[in-house]
Amino acid sequence: xxxxxxxxxxxxxxxxxxxxxxxxxxxxxxxxxxxxxxxxxxxxxxxxxxxxxxxxxxxxxxxxxxxxxxxxxxxxxxxxxxxxxxxxxxxxxxxxxxxxxxxxxxxxxxxxxxxxxxxxxxxxxxxxxxxxxxxxxxxxxxxxxx
Length: 146
Description:
With 146 residues, the protein is of the alpha+beta class. It has four helices and seven strands; from the N terminus they run αββββββαααβ. The chain has a single domain, classed as Roll (Pnp Oxidase, Chain A), CATH 2.30.110.10. Strands 2-1-5-6-7-4-3 form a seven-stranded antiparallel beta sheet. The protein is globular and about 40 Å long.
């Protein structure tokens, strides 16, 4: 997908998530995260898929936006039209990612297709697929209340 197409889709999704009635259709699966560019200092707003897990929000992503996050960094997140400050952690080590991806894939099996990670019915990721995805730049962004 081209950058221009992705930007247009992101704008549409942000608009849907900001609309009082329409957001209900997707806000249980999509949130908006505000990320500040490390070099530019510019604020970017990305709609991303997420799942809830043990008091945290988990985002499986291959997006470059996550490169701007540092461990423990505070970020603004909009979930169901409510803004929250959360602490971000980017997880790329295989053992932890496998545990988190089990939750992600069990609750959002479609993400496995996008990340090219096959999984069992309970969400357990195929280790070879997970290893290959991590090598391609896929990661889990773990968001916890600040």
